[in-house]
């Protein structure tokens, strides 16, 4: 009886250890092909394509030759049926543009917190007036970056086809003229085997 119990405990321990999961670090730049949903590879391709195209567009090259225009990023409208973090796409594009040394950005998502800090510095009496940031000294944005993210999904039996289109525009706030625009298209197709594997 003791021998049978020992064997059962040993078998249970082996079964449990076989079910343990293992987590490894992967290459964040590696191609991700888990499914047809929008993923990290798509985000990286869109950001690289948009920034590369914008940086060689002749009017943008001329505009940024001797100065760094100030831009703010508006929301990207997600017109897909997926929950996609479009802010992550624009964050990556913004980072690449700032690191190019050609653009400066204002962050409209923190305006309320900046205003609270300015009020605190000027009104609380706790901040040395000689070091307090002055009201009315922020630089206004010259350009607005905005866009749309859409998809078309088609299914035919065991095949699923997803077409994504990402459109980005750069608008001159003073003139209302779109100075630059581009689109990036991605198509992903998945076919299931007869056995659903």
From TrEMBL:
Record has Signal as a keyword: yes
Protein's organism: Alcanivorax jadensis T9
InterPro entries named in the record: LpoB
Keywords linked to the UniProt accession: Signal
UniProt protein name: Penicillin-binding protein activator LpoB
Signal peptide: 1-17
Top-level taxon of the source organism: Bacteria
């Amino acid at each position: 009886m003791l021998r049978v119990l020992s064997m059962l405990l040993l078998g249970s321990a082996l079964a449990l250890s076989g079910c343990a999961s293992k987590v490894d670090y992967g290459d964040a730049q590696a191609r991700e092909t888990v499914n047809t949903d929008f993923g990290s590879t798509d985000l990286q391709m869109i950001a690289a394509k948009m920034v590369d195209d914008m940086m060689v567009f002749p009017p943008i090259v001329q505009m940024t030759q001797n100065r760094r225009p100030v831009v703010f990023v508006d929301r990207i409208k997600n017109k897909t049926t997926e929950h996609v973090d479009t802010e992550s796409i624009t964050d990556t594009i913004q980072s690449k543009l700032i690191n190019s040394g050609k653009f400066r950005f204002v962050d409209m998502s923190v305006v309320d917190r900046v205003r609270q800090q300015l009020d605190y510095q000027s009104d609380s009496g706790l901040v040395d007036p000689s070091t307090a940031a002055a009201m009315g000294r922020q630089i206004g944005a010259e350009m607005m970056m905005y866009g749309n993210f859409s998809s078309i999904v088609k299914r035919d039996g065991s095949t699923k086809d997803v077409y994504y289109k990402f459109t980005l525009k750069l608008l001159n706030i003073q003139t209302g003229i779109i100075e630059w625009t581009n689109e990036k298209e991605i198509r992903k197709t998945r076919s299931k085997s007869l056995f659903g594997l």
